[in-house]
Design a protein that fits this description.
Number of helices: 13
Number of strands: 0
CATH superfamily of the largest domain: MFS general substrate transporter like domains
Oligomer: single chain
Largest sheet: none
Structural class: mainly alpha
CATH class of the largest domain: Mainly Alpha
Shape: globular
Helix content: over 70%
CATH topology of the largest domain: Growth Hormone, Chain: A
Amino acid sequence: MQNVQSKSEKLWTKYYCLTFIYAMTTQIANNMLLTGLPLYAIHLGGDNSISGMLFGFFMFVAILFRPYFGKLSDEKNRRIVLLIGALVTAFIALSYVVAFSISLLLIMRSLHGIGFSATTNASGTVISDIVPKKRLAEGVGYFGLSNTLATAIGPALSIYLIQQFNYQTLFIVAGVFGLISIVCSLFITYEKGNPKPEFISTKEKRKISELLFEKTAIPTGIVTAFVYVGMGAALTFIPTFALSLGIEDIGLYYTVYSFALLFTRIIGGKLADKYGSSLVIIPGLVLMSLSFVVLAFASSLGGFIISRRSLWFGTRVCRTSTKCHYDKALPT
């Protein structure tokens, strides 16, 4: 009896590891391109406004498709959404090789948002399915390390490939990571033979319009939206900003980012549980604001790194705390 219980509460199962690798490889590809594409746009003759459009189109399409992929994941099959995301990520990453104009680059980047929407939607849902309920917070926390590792590897690898080789090599390597995620998705088959949960029954299928708004999510959504508007701008323009200042080895900036992310991921939830969400969110927002001020006046790699450490401490604590606040606000 004890052995059965121990097995049922095992965390690092085959499907957990496959989903972890899937999420990490897709995010490595995404982070590589998030860093490299603004530089490539300038290489093609674009300017900073094109860099902003690349990020804006990407996220707009990702948001647009998120309700659809959530509905498809619930009512059909998680693996279908995983596979769609991996296929789009791999195909578009490889297709950038032939993007020799700004207009084509913008079109491809927009389509890439479909893959990002699918991968981030389905991978988190799969984890919530397969993690033992008694270890849910632990399992989700460890799963978040896939994004941390991707953040440590992707941007630095992107800068290295551009400096040592060329942009085409960057796109090919990003595509290879996408191909790895395709293989992983093919083996995530835990749904076979499992009955559908009651809330997914045909009678209770909901329209996409009914999935767009949840009152309990509004406070968290507002805070998160403001946080990530600033974060989106920082992530998009950091490579070109550093280039304009003549700063080299900007890949180190992202390495510091990953360590700050790992540190705050560990302590953020504990602080929120012990002291309450508000007492953690407010200092996080203050740190984030200060980091932007430091970044505005930074003229060396050291200044960038100081800003990065504060920025990601603030945003990660805010994100963890607002999620805890939302979870507690959900109706039981």
